[in-house]
Amino acid sequence: MVSVVLSLRHWLNMPVDDETLMQRYAQTGDARLLSALYDRRADDLYHFLLALCGHDMAQDVAQKTWLKVIEKRRLFNGSGRFKGWLFTLGRHTLLDDLRKRSGHPSSQAEVSAGCEFCDVDNQLAEAFGAALNALPFEQREAFCLQQEGFGLQEIATMCDCGTETIKSRLRYARHTLRQRLEKYHD
Known about the structure:
Blueprint: H1 2-12, H2 18-28, H3 31-52, H4 55-71, H5 82-102, H6 123-134, H7 137-147, H8 152-159, H9 163-181
């Protein structure tokens, strides 16, 4: 009898994936569900944004992104991954902020000047951060999304371009990073 109760407790407390949480949140607006999503994905979103812009801007954009999750919760249709939807919202929010700050709605290239990488003690990590920041925005973005675990098609969808374009951006990014870091190679 005890094992049946333990099995029932385990079944009732089964972990729920992000997509299910978001679908439930979209339907109910239950703040506990949003809180669970935030606890799971806030750091991922912040670190993605931090790789693309400075600390203060990353915090600001992350906060605005979570507000958009609240505002646009009914737009999540559950056909894709929540993390991809969240990062897409974050990316669009970042680009909107950059356009507002620069005064013109041009390309994403103006991002590079305002970017910084977190301070670390390790010389290789510092060199990697500098090399990453030196990449053009589009290459850095594709590289960071891939490091977050997104596939080529997901990245292409998020960046609103073709998979071949993403492949090229990743190839150029890896080539440039290798060149800049070759002195650290054994």
